[in-house]
Structure formats: structure tokens, C-alpha cells
Design a protein that fits this description.
336 residues; 69% helix; 13 helices
């Protein structure tokens, strides 16, 4: 028999009882926990759909402009690399050219999600090849797909590792306790046998003398057996919570699973918070404010594309490239 996933996954055909019979306190608490988990799951589904719609709208408006900027930045590499072969430039200018090439590659990689590892491995110092934390990605600038943007950048992974190293003893103790709770949840949610036995004892038709009740229990036992053979813990627990007056042992079972559901609630709320307010959220602002942000971003990208095209024309000749290098240095910049 396959093991149950570490969550109670309700089948689509089984509605969550909104007005179930009262039952014992443990039965009521379990049904309330189920409804709360289902509400959070529904909200997560809605938010994911809203963010998917926002992401599609975002890429529809910003994606083409981002691609223009990416193409313009990639077009800078050939003339810059060719200039490194010329005796026209001094050693200091050669070093500056390399910094410009590295900075341009990092801009493509960190801001736009482009693969510039070939350039970085060629020109970047060994200590900085793996992706530095000194250049944070500009929010919303990427020509990569939304799915690719959901993956952490190298500098984000490095920052995460640094935060882990700074964890206090209390932080580690809290995380250990949370892991213990998750392990207990996994253990509970992988065991349908305990719930099945509780239901079988209370519903076995051979133990019932009344013909009408025996027929009812036969049909109910069929549902119980089907759920057990399918390893459907959710249905078994629903049947246990709706089985009328429960003995102490059945209540104890429901209370343990209610605790597991409460842990699920905590995890679902954390997922919801991350979706709404995390770094990858596409719902930071809505309506007119969102439209204003998109318009501003598109203006910046258009201006950047025009600037890069102007630079591309200048650097075709050594004199123009030297003037660009002087301008970069005078403005206190290392790259274009």
C-alpha cells in the first residue's frame, strides 16, 4: 500500500461539511480544522491564479522592451573584446575595458536572468565568478520566463547561506522543534490503519442485529473499505468525524489529526504570505499604481535601449571607445 503524502488531500467528489452534525468536541474541532485548511487552500489557488494573470500581463507589456535591452547589451561584447587586442589602448584602459565587459555581463545575468557565464568565466576574477552579492537584481527586469525567474539567483543562494550561518541557538532550537512537528505530521498522515480500525469496530455490520441498521452499516463499511484500500486518509477521517457519538479512543485519534491539520494551516499561511509579499510576488501593487510602475519601467527600458544603441555606435572606433571610457570614469562608474 502506498504511503499518504504529508497533507490531507481532499478528493474533488467529497464536499467539506459546512453544517455537519454537532458530535463530540473532538469531532467538531476536526471539522473546523478541515474547513480552515480548505479555505486556505482555496485562497492559495486564487492568489496563484491572480499572480499568474499579473505575470502574463507584466511580460506582455515589459518583455519586448527587456529583450531589446538584452540584445543591445549583448551587441556590446564583440567591439569591446576586439578592443582588448589593440595596442591603441593603455594597460589601464585594458583593465577598464575588462571591468566594462564584466559589468555588462553581470547586468545581463543579475537584472535580466540571461546566461553570461561564458563572459564571466573568461574575464571575472576567480573569487567573483560564482555570482556576487554586490549587485542586486532590479525588480521586474528580466527577459527570462516567469518559471525561470522563480528560481533563486546565485547571489540569493549565497545570502541565504550567510543567514543560515548567523542563526542563533534559539533559532536552531525553534527550527528543530518545527522539524519535529513536521515529522510527527508525516507519521500521522502516512497511517490510515489506525483510523480504519476505529471505523471498522464501530461500523462492522456483523455486530449489528437490527436489520435496518445492519444494511446501513454494510453500505458504510463498503465506503470505509474502499477508502482504506485507496489509502484515502481524508475520507476515513471525514467518516470518523461524522460517525455520531464517538468513544474516547476515536476522539483521541481525531485530536491527533486535528493537531496535524493545524500544522498544515501554519504552513499554508506561510506560503500565502510568501506569495503575497515575497520577493517573487507580482501583487505588490494593484490598479493605477501598478500601471504607473509599469509605465515608468517601460520608460526606463526605452531610455536604456536608446543609450546603449548610442554607445554601440561610439565604440565601433577606438577614439569613440576611449571617450566612452573617460566618460564612465568621470561619472564614477565601472561599466555601461
Amino acid at each position: 500500500m502506498t504511503s499518504q503524502n504529508a497533507s490531507l488531500q481532499p478528493p474533488r467528489s467529497l464536499p467539506v461539511p459546512g453544517n455537519a452534525v454537532a458530535g463530540s468536541a473532538a469531532q467538531q474541532a476536526f471539522r473546523a480544522a478541515v474547513e480552515q485548511v480548505e479555505g486556505l487552500r482555496q485562497r492559495l489557488t486564487e492568489v496563484r491564479q491572480e499572480q499568474a494573470d499579473a505575470r502574463r500581463q507584466y511580460w506582455k507589456q515589459v518583455g519586448p522592451l527587456a529583450e531589446v535591452v538584452v540584445a543591445a547589451r549583448r551587441a556590446l561584447f564583440p567591439p569591446l573584446e576586439e578592443a582588448l587586442l589593440l595596442d591603441y589602448f593603455s594597460r589601464a584602459e585594458h583593465r577598464q575595458l575588462e571591468e566594462v565587459i564584466i559589468g555588462n555581463a553581470r547586468s545581463l545575468q543579475d537584472r535580466f536572468g540571461e546566461d553570461a557565464s561564458d563572459i564571466l568565466s573568461k574575464y571575472a576574477p576567480a573569487s567573483r565568478k560564482a555570482g556576487s552579492a554586490d549587485t542586486a537584481p532590479a525588480a521586474g527586469h528580466s527577459s527570462a520566463s516567469p518559471e525561470e525567474n522563480d528560481q533563486p539567483r546565485p547571489h540569493e543562494q549565497a545570502a541565504h547561506e550567510a543567514r543560515n550561518r548567523r542563526k542563533t541557538k534559539a533559532d536552531r532550537a525553534r527550527e528543530a522543534a518545527e522539524q519535529t512537528a513536521r515529522d510527527e505530521q508525516q507519521r500521522l498522515l502516512s497511517n490510515t490503519k489506525t483510523v480504519y480500525r476505529q471505523l471498522a469496530r464501530a461500523n462492522h455490520p456483523d455486530l449489528e442485529r437490527d436489520p435496518a441498521l445492519q444494511q446501513h452499516k454494510t453500505a458504510r463499511m463498503q465506503r470505509i473499505t474502499e477508502a482504506y484500500e485507496a489509502n484515502d486518509l481524508y475520507t476515513l477521517l471525514q467518516l470518523l468525524s461524522e460517525s455520531g457519538p464517538a468513544d474516547q479512543e476515536a476522539d483521541d485519534v481525531l485530536l491527533r489529526y486535528t493537531k496535524a491539520l493545524q500544522q498544515q494551516q501554519t504552513e499554508l499561511k506561510q506560503q500565502l504570505q510568501a506569495l503575497l509579499f515575497g520577493a517573487q510576488s507580482f501583487l505588490g501593487s494593484t490598479g493605477k499604481k501598478r500601471e504607473q510602475e509599469l509605465r515608468q519601467l517601460k520608460r526606463h527600458l526605452r531610455a536604456e535601449a536608446e543609450y546603449l544603441q548610442h554607445i554601440s555606435q561610439l565604440i565601433q572606433e577606438p577614439e569613440g571607445l576611449r571617450e566612452v571610457l573617460r566618460s564612465i570614469a568621470a561619472e564614477g562608474h565601472e561599466t555601461i
